[in-house]
Amino acid sequence: MKSDIQIHLYGSLRNMGKKHDEFTIRTGLESKAPLVDILKELKIPLDTVQLVMVNHKAVHMDSTIYPGDRIALFPREYPIFADWKDFRSVSKTNSPVIQYGAMNFPVRPILEEIETIAGLGFDYLELTMDPPQAHYSILRKNKDRILKALDKYRLGLICHLPTFVYTADLAESIRKASLSEVLNSLETASELGAAKVVLHPSYIGGMGIFVMDTAIKYAFESLSAIVAKADQLRICLCLENMFPKYHMGVEPEDFIEIFKTFPTLRLTLDTGHANIDDSGGQRLFEFIRLFESRLNHIHISDNLGEKDDHLPIGAGNIDFRKIINALKSCGYKETVTCEIFTENRKDLERSKKKFSDMFK
User: Fold this and answer.
1) pLDDT for 115-167, tens place per residue?
2) DSSP states of 227-255
3) Which of 38, 107, 289, 327 is the most interior residue, by most CB within 10 Å?
């Protein structure tokens, strides 16, 4: 059954309202839907909106809208008032310029990593929520200091949910423990004000590869719980493509059923993962072609097509100029994280410059 949502327009956006003969647009909504899809359907250009408030609370453009919600849209000429200073939007759906970020190395103290990444000139931190230094329990204890540091260095925040968990394991106790880690991390990301979170598909290993139907069933059950929590927290969840040894979430066709099942889920496209064992060199471009509307975040690194080396841009065989042309063709204006894991952190800075220069 449909329930109306109200969209209140302010400033120059009221010119959009004239198309609907009013400054407050009312439209029916049967179930939850991405905000960006609603605005596109109403032909409200995303790059004209600076701030969105849902039920009187500032939210990110990646948010999910529910039947009965009240939405307020403010144009680019409106100032961002002090009351909204803790609203760290790094979603570039409403920005003409892509923002670039880098990951912390979770072996190092998080406050030191924030200072380092800010010093390299990045726009945001992609917070890898793994032990020993970035487990959700440690992040919660240091929440105020982390937020203060992000404010000091004017860094946005994206969170990467735990990597070394097994949410499709055949052992129920391991699945439950892994899912608990992910859900607690997701809640912590929300508490820290993350604009979006990245999630790996479930890793299928051990005896799971011999009973794939069962393992995939467990993977979908875990993903369902994670998506439900993200929707509850109203935080954008971006599922990342992985490399072949994961046995799930590798090929573009793996994501067709996933995205059909979970309409609010978005895609993190990892260039390095897509290049591994891709003899035809088309896997990454097929992701872009099939899921242009779901693409919300990108990880960039280079490799030689054999393993996940996380090399600087230009040190492997990935054709980044071709990738950038494909991204430009689909109007990509979101976030790009440099995943360069060399000892010299300056490689992060250099890779960002190479990529951004090609994007100009």
Assistant:
1) 999 999 999 999 999 999 999 999 999 999 999 999 899 899 999 999 999 99
2) HHHHHHHT-EEEEEP--GGGSSS-STTHH
3) 327
